[in-house]
Fold this protein.
Amino acid sequence: MTTESAPLPESIPAAVYQSQRVVTIEQRPLAEPNPAQVVVEVSHCGICGSDLHLIDEGWGQSGDVLGHEWSGVVRSVGDSVVEFQPGDRVIGADSPRCGVCAACVAKKPSQCEDREPTTGHFDGAFATHVLADANTLLHIPDELGLREAALAEPLAVALHAITRSGIEQGNSAIVFGAGPIGALIAAVLIRDGHQVTVVEPAEQRQELARGLGAAAVLHPEELPSFDMGQVDTLAEDAVHVVFECSGRRDAMESGFQQLRRGGVLVLVGTGIDRPRFDPNRMILLELTVRGAFVYDADGFDRALEMLSSGTLPTDLLIDQAEYDLTGIAEAVDKLVRGEHSGKVMITPGGTDHD
Protein backbone atom coordinates (compact mmCIF):
# COMPACT_ATOMS: atom_id res chain seq x y z
CA MET A 1 0.00 0.00 0.00
CA THR A 2 1.26 3.50 -0.83
CA THR A 3 0.25 7.05 0.08
CA GLU A 4 -0.29 9.33 -2.91
CA SER A 5 -1.19 12.99 -3.37
CA ALA A 6 -2.87 12.14 -6.70
CA PRO A 7 -2.94 9.13 -9.02
CA LEU A 8 0.49 8.55 -10.55
CA PRO A 9 0.92 8.19 -14.32
CA GLU A 10 1.60 4.68 -15.55
CA SER A 11 4.40 5.99 -17.79
CA ILE A 12 6.54 9.11 -17.85
CA PRO A 13 8.62 10.96 -20.44
CA ALA A 14 12.37 10.57 -19.98
CA ALA A 15 15.40 11.84 -21.91
CA VAL A 16 17.27 8.69 -22.94
CA TYR A 17 20.89 8.62 -24.08
CA GLN A 18 21.23 6.69 -27.36
CA SER A 19 24.72 7.50 -28.68
CA GLN A 20 27.19 10.35 -28.82
CA ARG A 21 25.19 13.63 -28.87
CA VAL A 22 21.93 11.75 -29.48
CA VAL A 23 19.27 11.98 -26.76
CA THR A 24 15.66 11.01 -27.43
CA ILE A 25 12.44 11.30 -25.44
CA GLU A 26 10.83 7.98 -24.55
CA GLN A 27 7.87 6.94 -22.45
CA ARG A 28 9.13 4.79 -19.59
CA PRO A 29 6.93 2.83 -17.15
CA LEU A 30 6.76 4.33 -13.66
CA ALA A 31 6.90 1.58 -11.04
CA GLU A 32 5.02 1.73 -7.77
CA PRO A 33 7.35 2.41 -4.85
CA ASN A 34 8.29 -0.53 -2.68
CA PRO A 35 7.74 -0.09 1.10
CA ALA A 36 11.01 1.87 1.52
CA GLN A 37 10.79 3.99 -1.64
CA VAL A 38 9.39 7.34 -2.70
CA VAL A 39 8.19 8.69 -6.05
CA VAL A 40 9.29 12.28 -6.62
CA GLU A 41 8.12 14.65 -9.34
CA VAL A 42 11.29 16.34 -10.57
CA SER A 43 11.31 20.13 -10.49
CA HIS A 44 14.89 20.93 -11.51
CA CYS A 45 17.88 18.83 -12.50
CA GLY A 46 21.26 20.37 -13.20
CA ILE A 47 23.52 19.29 -16.05
CA CYS A 48 26.74 17.97 -14.52
CA GLY A 49 30.20 17.86 -16.04
CA SER A 50 29.88 14.07 -16.07
CA ASP A 51 26.73 14.46 -18.20
CA LEU A 52 28.81 16.44 -20.69
CA HIS A 53 31.37 13.63 -20.88
CA LEU A 54 28.67 11.00 -21.23
CA ILE A 55 26.63 12.82 -23.88
CA ASP A 56 29.08 14.95 -25.83
CA GLU A 57 32.06 12.58 -25.72
CA GLY A 58 30.03 9.38 -25.99
CA TRP A 59 30.92 7.84 -22.61
CA GLY A 60 27.29 6.92 -21.89
CA GLN A 61 25.54 3.60 -22.33
CA SER A 62 22.59 3.37 -24.67
CA GLY A 63 19.34 3.38 -22.72
CA ASP A 64 20.64 5.43 -19.78
CA VAL A 65 18.57 8.22 -18.27
CA LEU A 66 21.12 10.66 -16.84
CA GLY A 67 20.78 13.46 -14.30
CA HIS A 68 21.68 13.30 -10.60
CA GLU A 69 21.58 16.94 -9.39
CA TRP A 70 17.91 17.23 -8.68
CA SER A 71 15.13 18.65 -6.55
CA GLY A 72 11.44 17.85 -6.56
CA VAL A 73 8.18 17.20 -4.75
CA VAL A 74 7.17 13.87 -3.20
CA ARG A 75 4.10 12.41 -4.89
CA SER A 76 3.92 8.90 -3.41
CA VAL A 77 5.57 7.03 -0.52
CA GLY A 78 5.89 3.35 0.33
CA ASP A 79 4.02 2.07 3.36
CA SER A 80 7.08 1.88 5.62
CA VAL A 81 8.25 5.43 4.87
CA VAL A 82 7.51 7.77 7.78
CA GLU A 83 9.94 10.65 7.26
CA PHE A 84 8.38 11.88 4.00
CA GLN A 85 4.83 12.63 2.91
CA PRO A 86 3.29 13.62 -0.42
CA GLY A 87 3.89 17.31 -0.97
CA ASP A 88 7.28 17.38 0.77
CA ARG A 89 10.05 19.16 -1.12
CA VAL A 90 13.25 17.10 -1.33
CA ILE A 91 16.62 16.74 -3.01
CA GLY A 92 18.34 13.58 -4.14
CA ALA A 93 21.29 13.02 -1.80
CA ASP A 94 22.51 9.56 -2.70
CA SER A 95 26.12 9.02 -1.64
CA PRO A 96 28.16 5.92 -2.53
CA ARG A 97 28.83 4.33 0.84
CA CYS A 98 28.35 0.98 2.56
CA GLY A 99 28.28 2.53 6.03
CA VAL A 100 30.28 -0.22 7.76
CA CYS A 101 33.81 -0.28 6.30
CA ALA A 102 36.71 1.47 8.03
CA ALA A 103 36.48 4.52 5.76
CA CYS A 104 32.74 4.96 6.31
CA VAL A 105 33.12 4.54 10.08
CA ALA A 106 35.84 7.22 9.92
CA LYS A 107 33.32 9.53 8.18
CA LYS A 108 35.13 9.34 4.85
CA PRO A 109 32.40 7.85 2.64
CA SER A 110 34.14 9.03 -0.54
CA GLN A 111 36.79 6.39 0.21
CA CYS A 112 34.27 3.60 0.93
CA GLU A 113 35.94 0.23 0.44
CA ASP A 114 32.76 -1.50 -0.72
CA ARG A 115 30.97 1.07 -2.86
CA GLU A 116 29.29 0.22 -6.12
CA PRO A 117 31.31 0.64 -9.35
CA THR A 118 31.03 4.05 -11.00
CA THR A 119 30.20 2.37 -14.31
CA GLY A 120 26.97 0.66 -15.25
CA HIS A 121 23.48 1.66 -16.35
CA PHE A 122 21.94 4.74 -14.79
CA ASP A 123 18.29 5.66 -14.26
CA GLY A 124 18.36 9.32 -13.33
CA ALA A 125 16.34 12.51 -13.09
CA PHE A 126 16.20 13.69 -16.69
CA ALA A 127 12.58 12.58 -16.45
CA THR A 128 9.38 13.98 -14.97
CA HIS A 129 9.50 11.53 -12.03
CA VAL A 130 12.11 9.48 -10.19
CA LEU A 131 11.77 6.46 -7.95
CA ALA A 132 14.19 6.78 -5.03
CA ASP A 133 15.00 5.04 -1.78
CA ALA A 134 13.75 7.20 1.07
CA ASN A 135 17.13 7.08 2.78
CA THR A 136 18.72 8.88 -0.19
CA LEU A 137 16.54 11.99 0.16
CA LEU A 138 16.74 15.14 2.28
CA HIS A 139 14.11 17.74 3.09
CA ILE A 140 14.57 21.17 1.55
CA PRO A 141 14.48 23.99 4.13
CA ASP A 142 11.39 26.20 3.87
CA GLU A 143 13.41 29.29 2.99
CA LEU A 144 15.11 27.64 -0.01
CA GLY A 145 13.54 27.39 -3.45
CA LEU A 146 13.51 24.22 -5.52
CA ARG A 147 15.64 25.79 -8.24
CA GLU A 148 18.36 26.79 -5.80
CA ALA A 149 18.10 23.50 -3.91
CA ALA A 150 19.11 21.60 -7.05
CA LEU A 151 22.53 23.22 -6.61
CA ALA A 152 23.09 21.20 -3.41
CA GLU A 153 24.76 18.22 -5.10
CA PRO A 154 27.45 20.17 -7.00
CA LEU A 155 27.97 22.37 -3.93
CA ALA A 156 28.56 19.21 -1.87
CA VAL A 157 31.20 18.20 -4.44
CA ALA A 158 32.84 21.64 -4.12
CA LEU A 159 32.82 21.45 -0.32
CA HIS A 160 34.51 18.04 -0.41
CA ALA A 161 37.23 19.37 -2.71
CA ILE A 162 37.85 22.18 -0.21
CA THR A 163 37.99 19.65 2.62
CA ARG A 164 40.52 17.56 0.69
CA SER A 165 42.70 20.62 0.10
CA GLY A 166 43.29 21.27 3.79
CA ILE A 167 43.23 25.00 3.03
CA GLU A 168 43.70 27.18 6.10
CA GLN A 169 42.67 30.73 6.92
CA GLY A 170 45.01 33.16 5.16
CA ASN A 171 45.95 30.67 2.44
CA SER A 172 45.69 31.70 -1.21
CA ALA A 173 44.23 29.59 -4.00
CA ILE A 174 43.95 29.28 -7.76
CA VAL A 175 40.88 27.67 -9.33
CA PHE A 176 41.35 26.31 -12.85
CA GLY A 177 38.06 26.29 -14.74
CA ALA A 178 35.06 28.49 -13.88
CA GLY A 179 32.47 25.91 -14.80
CA PRO A 180 29.85 25.08 -12.16
CA ILE A 181 32.16 23.19 -9.77
CA GLY A 182 35.04 25.63 -10.14
CA ALA A 183 32.70 28.59 -9.70
CA LEU A 184 31.22 27.04 -6.56
CA ILE A 185 34.67 26.36 -5.09
CA ALA A 186 35.69 29.94 -5.83
CA ALA A 187 32.46 31.34 -4.36
CA VAL A 188 32.85 29.41 -1.10
CA LEU A 189 36.53 30.33 -0.75
CA ILE A 190 35.83 34.01 -1.44
CA ARG A 191 32.94 33.93 1.04
CA ASP A 192 35.37 32.53 3.63
CA GLY A 193 37.93 35.29 3.08
CA HIS A 194 40.53 33.60 0.86
CA GLN A 195 42.34 35.39 -1.95
CA VAL A 196 41.31 33.49 -5.08
CA THR A 197 42.61 33.66 -8.63
CA VAL A 198 40.50 32.03 -11.34
CA VAL A 199 42.05 30.72 -14.56
CA GLU A 200 39.52 30.43 -17.37
CA PRO A 201 39.76 30.89 -21.18
CA ALA A 202 36.05 31.56 -21.91
CA GLU A 203 34.98 35.21 -21.69
CA GLN A 204 31.53 34.53 -20.21
CA ARG A 205 33.01 32.44 -17.41
CA GLN A 206 35.70 35.03 -16.84
CA GLU A 207 32.92 37.54 -16.24
CA LEU A 208 31.25 35.12 -13.83
CA ALA A 209 34.52 34.80 -11.87
CA ARG A 210 34.80 38.59 -11.65
CA GLY A 211 31.21 38.77 -10.46
CA LEU A 212 32.01 36.27 -7.71
CA GLY A 213 34.77 38.57 -6.46
CA ALA A 214 37.92 36.78 -7.64
CA ALA A 215 41.06 38.76 -6.84
CA ALA A 216 42.35 38.06 -10.36
CA VAL A 217 40.99 36.38 -13.47
CA LEU A 218 43.57 35.04 -15.91
CA HIS A 219 43.67 33.34 -19.27
CA PRO A 220 45.69 30.10 -19.11
CA GLU A 221 48.29 31.59 -21.47
CA GLU A 222 49.13 34.27 -18.88
CA LEU A 223 50.54 31.73 -16.43
CA PRO A 224 54.27 31.04 -16.10
CA SER A 225 55.74 27.62 -16.89
CA PHE A 226 59.07 26.11 -15.88
CA ASP A 227 61.33 23.59 -17.58
CA MET A 228 63.58 20.93 -16.06
CA GLY A 229 66.31 23.49 -15.44
CA GLN A 230 63.94 25.53 -13.25
CA VAL A 231 62.80 22.65 -11.11
CA ASP A 232 62.66 24.68 -7.89
CA THR A 233 61.77 28.08 -9.37
CA LEU A 234 58.52 29.46 -7.95
CA ALA A 235 55.88 31.43 -9.80
CA GLU A 236 55.77 35.07 -8.71
CA ASP A 237 52.20 34.60 -7.45
CA ALA A 238 52.56 31.01 -6.23
CA VAL A 239 49.70 29.85 -4.03
CA HIS A 240 49.06 27.40 -1.23
CA VAL A 241 46.34 25.42 -3.03
CA VAL A 242 45.34 24.84 -6.65
CA PHE A 243 41.94 23.35 -7.53
CA GLU A 244 41.92 21.87 -11.04
CA CYS A 245 38.29 21.64 -12.16
CA SER A 246 38.49 21.47 -15.96
CA GLY A 247 39.83 17.93 -16.35
CA ARG A 248 42.31 19.15 -18.95
CA ARG A 249 45.82 17.72 -18.98
CA ASP A 250 47.45 21.09 -19.68
CA ALA A 251 45.57 22.69 -16.79
CA MET A 252 46.65 19.96 -14.37
CA GLU A 253 50.27 20.34 -15.43
CA SER A 254 50.14 24.14 -15.26
CA GLY A 255 48.40 24.09 -11.90
CA PHE A 256 51.17 21.93 -10.47
CA GLN A 257 53.67 24.66 -11.41
CA GLN A 258 51.73 27.45 -9.66
CA LEU A 259 52.21 26.01 -6.17
CA ARG A 260 54.45 27.44 -3.47
CA ARG A 261 56.58 25.18 -1.26
CA GLY A 262 54.42 22.65 0.53
CA GLY A 263 51.48 23.42 -1.78
CA VAL A 264 48.58 21.13 -2.63
CA LEU A 265 47.07 20.42 -6.04
CA VAL A 266 43.52 19.05 -5.81
CA LEU A 267 42.27 17.24 -8.93
CA VAL A 268 38.50 17.70 -9.16
CA GLY A 269 37.75 17.57 -12.88
CA THR A 270 37.89 14.31 -14.82
CA GLY A 271 39.38 13.85 -18.28
CA ILE A 272 40.88 11.36 -20.69
CA ASP A 273 44.37 12.80 -21.25
CA ARG A 274 46.70 11.89 -18.41
CA PRO A 275 49.01 14.59 -17.01
CA ARG A 276 52.74 14.34 -16.43
CA PHE A 277 54.29 15.90 -13.31
CA ASP A 278 57.97 16.50 -12.65
CA PRO A 279 58.81 14.29 -9.64
CA ASN A 280 61.93 16.33 -8.91
CA ARG A 281 59.82 19.47 -8.53
CA MET A 282 57.45 17.54 -6.30
CA ILE A 283 60.34 16.37 -4.10
CA LEU A 284 62.24 19.65 -3.87
CA LEU A 285 59.15 21.76 -3.17
CA GLU A 286 57.41 19.03 -1.14
CA LEU A 287 54.25 19.29 -3.22
CA THR A 288 51.15 17.13 -2.78
CA VAL A 289 48.64 16.00 -5.42
CA ARG A 290 45.25 14.83 -4.17
CA GLY A 291 42.05 13.62 -5.77
CA ALA A 292 38.58 14.71 -4.67
CA PHE A 293 35.67 12.36 -5.35
CA VAL A 294 32.04 13.09 -4.44
CA TYR A 295 31.15 14.26 -0.92
CA ASP A 296 31.98 14.70 2.76
CA ALA A 297 29.87 12.65 5.18
CA ASP A 298 27.78 15.76 5.96
CA GLY A 299 28.22 17.36 2.54
CA PHE A 300 24.58 17.60 1.49
CA ASP A 301 23.45 18.93 4.87
CA ARG A 302 26.14 21.62 4.80
CA ALA A 303 25.28 22.47 1.20
CA LEU A 304 21.59 22.96 2.02
CA GLU A 305 22.50 25.05 5.07
CA MET A 306 24.86 27.23 3.03
CA LEU A 307 22.35 27.71 0.23
CA SER A 308 19.63 28.58 2.75
CA SER A 309 21.87 31.16 4.42
CA GLY A 310 21.84 33.41 1.36
CA THR A 311 25.62 33.88 1.54
CA LEU A 312 26.26 32.45 -1.94
CA PRO A 313 25.31 34.42 -5.11
CA THR A 314 23.01 31.78 -6.60
CA ASP A 315 21.74 34.35 -9.11
CA LEU A 316 25.21 34.20 -10.68
CA LEU A 317 25.97 30.54 -10.05
CA ILE A 318 22.78 29.31 -11.73
CA ASP A 319 22.39 30.25 -15.39
CA GLN A 320 19.24 32.11 -16.33
CA ALA A 321 18.62 29.71 -19.22
CA GLU A 322 16.48 26.64 -18.54
CA TYR A 323 15.59 23.76 -20.85
CA ASP A 324 12.90 21.11 -20.88
CA LEU A 325 13.70 17.47 -21.66
CA THR A 326 13.71 18.08 -25.40
CA GLY A 327 16.45 20.67 -25.03
CA ILE A 328 19.08 18.58 -23.23
CA ALA A 329 21.24 17.91 -26.30
CA GLU A 330 21.11 21.60 -27.23
CA ALA A 331 22.02 22.63 -23.68
CA VAL A 332 24.98 20.22 -23.64
CA ASP A 333 26.21 21.57 -26.96
CA LYS A 334 26.04 25.17 -25.71
CA LEU A 335 27.80 24.26 -22.48
CA VAL A 336 30.62 22.57 -24.38
CA ARG A 337 31.00 25.69 -26.53
CA GLY A 338 31.07 27.93 -23.46
CA GLU A 339 27.81 29.75 -24.22
CA HIS A 340 26.51 29.30 -20.67
CA SER A 341 28.47 30.51 -17.67
CA GLY A 342 26.46 29.14 -14.72
CA LYS A 343 24.79 25.86 -13.81
CA VAL A 344 22.16 25.01 -16.42
CA MET A 345 18.93 23.54 -15.11
CA ILE A 346 16.59 21.12 -16.84
CA THR A 347 12.91 21.47 -15.90
CA PRO A 348 11.41 18.12 -16.96
CA GLY A 349 7.82 19.23 -16.40
CA GLY A 350 8.41 22.65 -17.86
CA THR A 351 7.28 24.43 -14.67
CA ASP A 352 8.64 25.41 -11.26
CA HIS A 353 6.89 23.79 -8.28
CA ASP A 354 7.92 26.49 -5.77
Q: What stands out?
A: The chain has a mean pLDDT of 94. The first strand starts at residue 2 and ends at 4. Residues 2-139+313-346 form a domain with the Quinone Oxidoreductase; Chain A, domain 1 fold (CATH 3.90.180.10).
